[in-house]
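S.,

Sequence below, as promised.
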Amino acid sequence: MNIRSRGIGIRLPLAALSGLLAGLLALAVAELVSAAVRPESGPVIAVGGAAIDRTPPALKDWAIRHFGTNDKLVLQLGILAVLALLALALGVLALCFRRAGAAGVLLFGIVGALAATSRPDSSSAADALPSVVGSLAGAVLLYVLVGRLTAPVHSMAGPGGGAVGPDGAVAGQSPAPGQPDGWDRRGFVVAASAAAAASVGAGLLGRSLNGSRGQGAVASRGRVVIPPPASAARPVPTGAVLHTPGISPFVTPITDFYRVDTALVIPKVDATQWRMRIHGKGVSRPLTLSFQELLGRPLIERDITLACVSNEVGGPYVGNARWIGVPLAGLLKEAGVRPPSRGGPADQLVARSVDGMTIGTPVEDIMDGRDAMLAVGMNGEPLPFVHGFPVRMVVPGLYGYVSACKWLQDLELTTFDAYDSYWVKRSWAKKAPIKTESRIDTPKPFARPKAGTVMIAGVAWAQHRGIDRVEVRVDDGAWTRADLAAADTSDTWRQWSLPWKATPGGHTLTVRATDRTGRTQTEERTPTIPDGASGWHSVVITVD
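The prediction came back faster than expected:
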């Protein structure tokens, strides 16, 4: 092997490493700069948010179905993996075309800047700074490191005018001792080590500063004392809670309550600084409320089951909690709003979150007497940050994407013809009442219970209509009526159970529910798009 080929062989992986170090420094510097702007302006968060905005609904549902609440982590890891591969490629490119490689790093900074400033929650060009400054740092580092790989050890011409070859060696000469391939090994190691240390330091400092930005919000939540409700939730009736092993608890613990949203960074809003505005079409008396003013109003407390439109048949994205908040219909009436059935000009209430999310809710549904509220508490404590602290919407009977705006900051009255909210723009239905559904919680799919009495149990829901009957079928047999737990309200799910004399062999268990309007859950399987999945839930088991 000649000196030239040996030099390229050694320098190629080092050039790739240079690209990786440049990418690492770019992200670390961007993290540090984002602490001075806002955490959401960081390139990974901005690009991830832009990716979510442009993800086809079917792909979004696939991600939720396969990764659950870890879908955002998977997305961020995927972005980092792609950036790492591109950084490696830019490093190799820079070995042959030094300026082109550095320019490639700058190009990705531009992409990050455009993503950050195009986000719906962006209000300033300063959101571009983290990506721009980070990419500049990365481009300079790549240029410097590759320079160490291509820098000749000898003078540009040897004795007698020998020319410098592309591998850094002078024609007709051997590399100097300690520099076997004609490049500045010591300089490269020093620069690469310093860059790695700077990246780690900048990244940790940026992460720490970004974390400290939310301390005021955390402290404000810790000081919240929710007053006793003027209208307390009635006690859960005796017999409403079954103690069958494996069944979903009647009240879902906060730690187990599903979370489906687009926020890659959980907004942390200081309750002392929070304000909410009610304005728009048909509003004769606009309102602006602080958190303390909201708490000073009469509160209601209700048990309400929420469901996500992305919940597949038999899926986990449904939960029941005890909510406390201010009746939303009363606030709208105070602002002069009338429902369409009484001549009001607005038929849609658009809720806006601090992260730019928009959710449109039918005004008629909010004002028809159901317990729609601006919730401030959940299961006896102030809302957790992941569930919308300080204030979120809760409207019984509607899927969350048209009713359950978290981190609420603005309510605008408009019409469905005049404005399409975030999910409607992405092919979901404008109006989406929750469908009658039921689920088998136990036995689990592919379980192997022993022959004898096996308890089949689960939950059924038809919010704002209530569950009247649940039936279970074994294989292709007749439908058997299950035992229903006592009903709490029409806005909560209902537990059910059925003792079954199981015989050895494979069996398919199927469930269906009928709501209090007399409508039985349809067998027809439909996807979640555009207004929620339908179909009977079945599990296959083997009895030993």
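The first helix runs from residue 3 to 37.

Coffee later?
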